[in-house]
Amino acid sequence: MTPPGAHGGPTADDAQLAALGYTGQFHRSMGLWANMALGFTYLSPLVGVYSLFAYSLSIGGPPAIWWIVIVGVGQLLVALVFGEVVSQYPLAGGIYPWTRRLWNRRYAWIVSWVYIWAIIVTVTAVAEFGGGFVAALFGVEATPGVVLLTAVALLVIAFVVNYSGTRMLARIAKVGLAAELIGVIALGLFLLLFRREQPFSVFFDTLGAGGDAGYVGTFLAAALSGLFLFYGFEACGDVAEEVADPTRRIPKAMVLTILVGGVSGLLSYAGYVLAAPAAQLQAIVAGEDVDPIPTILVSALGTVGSKVFLVVTVVAFVSCVLSLQAAGSRLLYAFARDRMLPASGWLSHVSDRHAVPTNALLVVCVVPALICLFVYWQPDSLARVTAFAVLGIYIAFQAVVLAALRQRLRGWRPAGLWNLGSAGLVVNVLALAYGVFAIVLLVKPAPGTETFLDRWIVAVGLAVVAGTGLLYLFTARPDRHSAHIPEGDAREVAAQLHQIRRGASMQARAQASEEIR
């Protein structure tokens, strides 16, 4: 058996998986670019920019664009920490196995409970918002009924693709990546080069945003323009057992997702701002134009061009839902594989034919569809239902960062083939500091809200999800079913992997010496 870390292809991957206590059930048919495409389409700068363009401008004015840079740098630090963790623990499910092996099973349970609900709610929100684009593409009024039907259709299409297997998932993710790049980079460059109406200095002009109040508070309030954009890169690690050479490729895919996504989002956002006529830009900042991008597109591309862009956008939304479902289903599978959920045997079932967790996929399709149905009956509930999603994801991220730092302070030296060496501790501390700052900004009440519920809806949503999870954890004790599965073993596993590699290196040198003699 080829030892982990040697160039033995799938054999080395399976050897490291076996060393971690698991037997592979998936097909390792996903390469670097397909893995990066999965994370990129989950991150989806097109969806993020379109969703929050008018909102962020109305709060912070054109300087809100700098949050894309700030958050991009912060999340790059987080991605570097994740890279070291996944390189040592290339296990399906990402957040769950990482937190379990870095801390313990109870910690992993509550973190994963929050994260899975955040993913499910995010799937719902993306499908709902995508429904409006589908309606616009076919020239149909986006009534609640039409949005419901199109949202459910997006969920079903994504489920069918996911069910078809990892190879099909990889292919469609690459198509989604191409659509995203066309929709954000190509269009952004076109607007910047040929349809520019504003000078670049506009990004330092508040245009009256925030009124007479100090601009620092106003700028902080506009942070969502970046915070909403930079997550999804962890999906690269959710499918770790379906990637060839995951210890090297997944960290690279995560970093590429952040870098390419950041540049894409920056170009797209800048393109829309610079292509907006002065009167329209002022109306957006004043909150009078709440959906300005279609108007900008029609004036810049014409009716036919805007229709083509809508096709690209719909493809991007399908890919985003696809990636979210894939990530959520692998998390559920990993959770259930360790017997941590009710009906674990059913949830952990993997199709013999397609090698995908079919029942977990079904849950991540059906539950969002049911939430869509609830939103249909209560249209005003969507914002409240989805309010905690971004916060839940950031908290799950920082739970990994905190657990990694705790292990480092106890002497852990990451043993993956991809690691930061002596810089790891500094990066880990900075990533945690950034994460705490981001969480505070997300909990902070939105400007202009008056009622207690609306002011603190993000914190309330998190409290409900985390509270129910803790109640179930301490009453039903689901963690007791997996007491035999390793936990908190980062230092021990690292020592084992280091020893195996030293032995392999010594054996290779001995063989080389023998051949020379």
Automatic annotation (TrEMBL):
Keywords: Membrane, Transmembrane, Transmembrane helix, Transport
Keyword Kinase part of the UniProt annotation: no
Keyword Mitochondrion: no
Signal sequence bounds: none
Localization: Membrane
Transmembrane region(s): 32-53, 65-86, 107-140, 146-163, 175-194, 214-233, 253-275, 356-377, 383-405, 417-443, 455-474
Pfam families: AA_permease_2 (PF13520)
Primary residence: membrane
Topological relation to the membrane, as annotated: Multi-pass membrane protein
Protein name: APC family permease
